[in-house]
Amino acid sequence: MSDHTNSSQTASAESTVETPLVWDHLSDVRTRLHQADGLLFGTDFDGTLSPIEENPDSPEPTETNLRSLRALRDHPQVSPAVISGRGLADLRERVGIEGVDYVGNHGLELGIDGQRETHPDAEAAEPVIEDICQTLGDRLAGIDGTVVENKGVTATIHYRMVDREEVKTVQNHVKEVVSELGKDEVEIHDGKESLELRPAADWDKGTAISQLLAHTEVWLPLYIGDDTTDEAAFEEIRPDGITVHVGDNHKTAADYRVRTPAEAEVFIRWVVTDGLALVESTDDTR
């Protein structure tokens, strides 16, 4: 087993500069959009398209965000994608918009142009993930609020609803079980009030967004997300893309931030109402 520290802790850990709010730099974003031939719009799901909920089964995208995604999908110079730690089938069902690319399990499941592709190392690790989840279900049964979510090629152990004094116990159980059963095929990654179990594959949200970019020629990438797992996507498209962190993590690799999912909703709507007009004007002048 290898226990990974997320890239966000190294991206700007040495910097004490506060990540600026995107509202203070909309002129820069406007300039970038005006210069773009098209836009690859990537977004996380939980905490971005939907509010964060204690129960991982509860989140649903807001109606405003769904309207924005449909508008982005319908624009000929925009390719929208939702990139999430959720399983691909779960993600598609929750968003429910045809014509949008979906990437599940932190990039291990790709649904691009209607075609599904799963990383081979991820498929091979599925039985191991299953064994780990079953064992953890037994060992954590006595700790109220723990949720073991088996997503097929990955798993998430949620402890958002767990008593703070019990969180360390949950984390220790996860590390012990992965050490016992992981067979060097499964890694532990920090998530938001959770631990992520993933196959030991060189693949993450950054790799996924690079795959999406390969389908959009030289379009400008924009990515918005709130989780530590989104840092790989921020790092992948910087400095050429527009990166927006949702929350107050000032160690993020993103260039800008919004404070809450509600502000993320407003920014995404701004992209639709103001940003797309800039991309259109670029097309009109060529």
TrEMBL record:
Please list the cofactors this protein needs.
Answer: Mg(2+)
Q: Which domain of life is it from?
A: Archaea
Q: Does the keyword Magnesium apply?
A: yes
Which pathway does this chain act in? Glycan biosynthesis; trehalose biosynthesis
Enzyme class, broadest EC rank: hydrolase
User: What family does the database annotate?
Assistant: Belongs to the trehalose phosphatase family.
- What is this protein's name? Trehalose 6-phosphate phosphatase
Question: What is the protein's species of origin?
Answer: Halohasta litchfieldiae
